[in-house]
Amino acid sequence: MNRIIYIILLITCALQTSAQVFVESKIDSIEILIGEQTDLTLSVTADKGAKVKLPVYKPNQYITPGVEVLDNSVSDTSQLDNGLVKISRKYTLTSFDENLYYLPPMKVVVDGKTYKSKSLALKVLTVPVDTLHPEKFYPPKGVQDNPFLWSEWEPTFWLSVLFVIMCVLTYYLWTRLKENKPVIARVRLVKKIPPHQRALKEIEGIREKKMSMQEDQKAYYTMLTDVLRKYIRERFGFNALEMTSSEIIARLQQDGDKKMIDELKELFTTADLVKFAKYSTLINENDANLVNAVEFINTTKLENQPAIERVEPKLTETDKRKMRSRITLKAAIYVLLVMSAALLAYVVYRASMLV
């Protein structure tokens, strides 16, 4: 008796276990026209946590000869009562041959065990054509103009307006450039007179004026020392016009002939006494100082100096501002021209695509 009860319990458990897996398949439409599509839905009801494997078809793979699977949807899982879940997947089918097709059962694997769905049928129909009344067929329609849509032409219109604005701005800048005359800075080549020649020529002028009389001594020594100071500035490179006699002598003693420096020192000392202490000199003393000045110049002069001097132009702040303004205007005009050309090409391209 116990053995019979045990066998009955095993059979009941097995029946309950098998009853927990249920495979269902259905098709949305059993009739379609050639080329139309319909969805086949495969559902599996099983215990929660069971490993369910639904069939997967490649694109354009035949589920049966003549019927193609276009797409497989992602599995959809929904919770049911009593710890069960329902897993579904859709298959999009189509066919291009008129026929009544038999769709074989689809296999589902649950926890390693294979289950099958029921078989289905799909009828594919052709498009009915009335060949007995060809007058009902309409001839092909001619080419029709597309309706004007502002939304399509609006970007092209505003880009065209921008192109016109850029052209106007370019013309304005070009007129400003014409009004802003260029600043011409030319380098001048001037014939250069060597410092010793200029100084000797001025001393010769002093000699010809015969300014060695008593009443002209102050003017005489002022002119003579001024000529020497200018010569020293150009020859030795320091500003002797702004220096005292002792400062000039000290500067020349660094690299000059001591005898000549002493004679020049005596000349500057005499000149200071005449100009500031009302010292009176003799005529021969004035001539000796003139000779010493000429001798100093001839001793320290530099030969073979360039006869042409390059004079660089000096621009005022106004000229510099004009030059910077012209450069800015030219750069802006070039940039606007390039942008305008690119914009015009783009507008023409868009218009040609819309026409």
Blueprint of the fold:
Blueprint: H1 2-19, E1 22-27, E2 31-33, E3 37-47, E4 52-53, E5 61-64, E6 67-72, E7 76-79, E8 84-94, E9 99-103, E10 107-110, E11 113-116, E12 120-125, H2 150-179, E13 188-191, H3 195-209, H4 217-236, H5 245-252, H6 258-276, H7 283-300, E14 308-311, H8 317-354
Parallel strand pairs: 2-12
Antiparallel strand pairs: 1-3, 3-8, 4-10, 5-6, 6-8, 7-8, 9-12, 10-11, 13-14
Helix pairs in contact: 2-8, 3-4, 3-7, 4-6, 4-7, 5-6, 6-7
Features:
alpha+beta, three-stranded mixed sheet, elongated, 355 residues
Describe the structure.
By secondary structure, this protein is of the alpha+beta class. The protein has eight helices and 14 strands. The strands form four sheets. Strands 1, 3, 5, 6, 7 and 8 form a six-stranded antiparallel sheet that branches. A three-stranded mixed sheet has the order 2-12-9, with no helix packed on it. Strand 10 and strand 11 form a beta hairpin. The longest helix is centred in the C-terminal third of the chain and has 38 residues. The radius of gyration is 58 Å and the shape is elongated. The protein starts with a helix and ends with a helix. About 1% of the residues have low confidence.
